[in-house]
């Protein structure tokens, strides 16, 4: 033993220098009167330690695996006794109360060793935190050892560069039918999301749903999935021309699915098929007229609106005759397109085509 103080009437001695943090020191005392020194007391052991120092400000980031907010910190000076716990506190959105989340239990040895924990994004957007999209999460940390209580708290995490709340994607625009679609095959396209529209989190997949031609299905709950992949187009084969189909599309990121788009309703169809060779003959009711008639081609599930009737000229060029054989929307559509026949005066054709007498009249529709 080393004497710390000479004989004195003082009942307290303060050791203020030469103490090594973490070292266990032994102390004993004795008293002296005019008759001499009395016996020593029992030995008392005291470790040179106190509460840990305040940590530096913790940092926050987005955990790549879970999408939660990862909180990380550096262990402060333990002040002579090993740190056994941390208190990780999260400020609520209102900025008036600090709370502890069970996902960041600083009393667990794994958390103490890792100096890191992750809070689910869903916890931060619910009570008592109530953060909303793009809010920066504010946290602080303090440490404890065997000395009673926690040490001083760290400064708060950075309110500008810290992790911000992310959410599911917004509602997408309704899918659109590609121009390559036919009455047997439908290709649907949609616009990708990014940035804030994607909830500030990369889109993992787009999901296209349809009713399969069943008008009784509810778009919100009963539509049938067609694809769930990181694509912006999908082709549905073997649809029925003229039948009504409905489609919606949605997207998902690590936090889940966004809302369904508005419904796209369509009927598969295509341009008409090739018309058969028309019939060209003298009009039985007027032999000075040439009658052209033809059969309706495959309409590919959409009503035929009009026809174009072309006559070959002497130079091989095909031209219309719009006085008697105009099958356009603005011409004699009901008479020509509806009946699929028209008659042209022979004299008109001779002038139009400049063909020699007895030449064959050639027509295509």
> In percent terms, what proportion of residues is strand?
25-35%
- What helical percentage do the residues reach? under 10%
The overall strand count is 24
Largest sheet: 5 strands, antiparallel
Low-confidence stretches: none
Give the total of domains: 4
Q: Could you say what the CATH architecture of the largest domain is? A: Sandwich
Total of helices: 4
Task: Tell me what the structure shows.
The protein is mainly beta and 365 residues long. The chain folds into 4 domains: 48 residues, Immunoglobulin-like (Sandwich), CATH 2.60.40; 86 residues, no CATH class; 91 residues, Immunoglobulin-like (Sandwich), CATH 2.60.40.10; 86 residues, no CATH class. A hairpin with a 2-residue loop joins β2 and β3. The radius of gyration is 44 Å and the shape is rod-shaped.
